[in-house]
Design brief:
It is built from six helices and two strands. It is mainly α. The chain has one domain. α1 packs antiparallel against α2. The termini are far apart.
Length: about 220
């Protein structure tokens, strides 16, 4: 009888231990998850801020005589694609493919805006336009904020993933369904800076960017 009581006591202690450990792990994972979601909201806000600047930028640039229409069309199409690829701003993505689609659409808009700014170099009057200068400054500031918010998001995801994959929290993470989260990845070709060649030979011709030569 005494041995049975001892066994029951041990079982109860083990159960209590797991309940306490499970609650602690669950609360820790929830806190990490909230940090990820908060960081994601910041990323979304910065990307939305950039998208909101595009219409005013396009309207301003359209006023320049003989401005390359194809460049503006690329920007407009890229912004529309961004609007078509949306992820809930309240919850960070759990699917790597969904995040990759989101990132690809945003990278396409970044590329289109970069090409637009290169073309603008051929239009001194447009560069001197006060409205354009203000929009350019806002875009540059937003791009910097995007880079910072993406870095903070990746840091939050890293902290969450470490918690969700290391013991003892990792055991309860699988039990409660806390899955690893995907990171923002470096854009393809980001390690190679383009060489910009300005071609002023023919009216309406655009400067082109060619890949840097490899060693």
């Amino acid at each position: 009888m005494k041995s049975l009581s001892t066994v029951l006591g041990i079982i109860i202690l083990v159960v209590v231990f797991f309940v306490i450990a499970g609650c602690g792990s669950y609360n820790r994972l929830i806190a990490r998850q909230q940090e990820v979601n908060s960081s994601w909201a910041d990323v979304e806000n910065m990307y939305q801020r950039r998208a909101d600047l595009v219409p005013n930028l396009v309207n301003t640039v359209q006023g320049a005589a003989n401005f390359e229409k194809s460049t503006l069309t690329d920007v407009i199409k890229a912004r529309q694609q961004v609007n078509n690829v949306q992820i809930s701003p309240a919850s960070a993505p759990t699917d790597a493919q969904a995040l990759q689609q989101f990132q690809s659409s945003q990278d396409a808009l970044s590329g289109a805006l970069s090409r637009l700014m290169v073309v603008v170099e051929r239009y001194p009057d447009l560069k001197a336009n006060a409205n354009f200068q203000e929009l350019q400054a806002q875009l540059e500031g937003t791009e910097n904020r995007i880079a910072v918010s993406r870095r903070k998001f990746n840091e939050a995801v890293q902290a969450y993933n470490v918690s969700a994959q290391t013991l003892p929290v990792g055991f309860f993470a699988r039990f409660f369904g806390f899955l690893p989260r995907p990171y923002f990845q470096a854009s393809a070709g980001a390690e190679n800076a383009p060489q910009v060649n300005f071609n002023f030979g023919a009216p309406g011709s655009s400067p082109t960017a060619v890949p840097a030569s490899t060693p």
